Structure formats: C-alpha cells, structure tokens
Amino acid sequence: MKKSKASDVAILAIFIAIMVVVQLFTQFVINVWPFPVKPTLLHLPVIIGSIILGWRKGAFLGLVWGLISFVTATIVTTPTSFLFSPFQPVIGTHHGSPWGLFIAFIPRILVGILPYFVYKIANNRLGAGLAAFAGTATNTILVLTSIFLFFGSTLKWSLSYLLGAIVATNSLTEVIIAVILTTAIVPALTKARNNS
C-alpha cells in the first residue's frame, strides 16, 4: 500500500513537472508559431492523471493547471490576461474582476474530475478516448461559456460567436490530440503501474 501511494505521488510530481515544462515551451512556441491554430496541451496531463490516479488527484492537477493559468496571466500581460487574473485590468477599466479566478480554476478542476468517471464506463481504449473527449470538451465549453457570461459584453461576444468558438478549429484540434494521446498513453501507464 505504501509503495502504491509513493508511486502515485511520484507520478503526480511527474505530471506537474510536465505541465510546467509544457507551459514554458508553449509560451515560447506561441511567439514563433506561424499557424493560426494554437491548441493548448495542458489539459492532457490533467486528463491522463485523472484516469490513472483517480478524481481527487485529477482535481489537484486541475488546480495546478488553474494556478499556472492564473500566474501566467498575472505576470504576462496580453489583451486577454484579465480573463484569468483579477490583477489584470478588464478592457476599458482600471481594475480586474474576481471572475478571472473562476475561469482560471473551476473549469480546470472539473477537467481533473470528469475523465475519471467517464473512463469507468469502459476501462479500455474506448473509455480513454471518451474520457479525453469529455475532459477537453469540459474545458472548452466551461471556459468559453464563463467568458461569455462574465465578460461577453466587454468583448462584444454574441451567442453565435460563442457557439462558433466552441466548435472552432482550435477546439477540434485539441480534442483530436487529446483522444489520440490519451488512448495511447493510458493503457501503457496502467500496465506499468499495475506491474510496479
């Protein structure tokens, strides 16, 4: 039992390290990336961690993801930083909004919870693919819907714009990447974890 818990903590630490590296790498790549599609990859360790380690540790990984988003948005000022940090002023104002914390944390924590339960429906590659889809869709839908609800008037988003953003190229790319990598990684990690 102790060995299993130590193994889980080690895996959790590896996922967190991967998230930090991916975030730093992504920040660099976005500046030189020549293509219009700029998918996020931070949801992958959260989804896979949820499936492998359980929903509680998945929620913790989601919390870490939210913290990474919050810190990045607070330190790096971009036109949309206020969406994830109350310390960045909302467009047209001199103050931030606490709703930035909601957007940064709540959807990401849920991304760490939902895939575990979806995967339990089918403990196989299909289940892993469905969990990846559910986790990615949860992030996309909740983040964009929250932005629409809390900052839609500021950004002049219409409902049709929101729906278009949910099914945009970035979203589809993120789903495809998540499904492919999760269905490949989860069985291998599960086997390795069971043999340790």
From TrEMBL:
GO molecular function, one term: transmembrane transporter activity
Keyword terms: Membrane, Transmembrane, Transmembrane helix
Keyword Cytoplasm in annotation: no
Protein name: Pantothenic acid transporter pant
UniProt cross-references to Pfam families, sorted A to Z: ECF_trnsprt
Coiled coil residues, start to end: none
Annotated source species: Lactococcus cremoris subsp. cremoris TIFN3
Residue spans crossing the bilayer: 9-30, 36-55, 62-87, 99-119, 126-151, 163-189
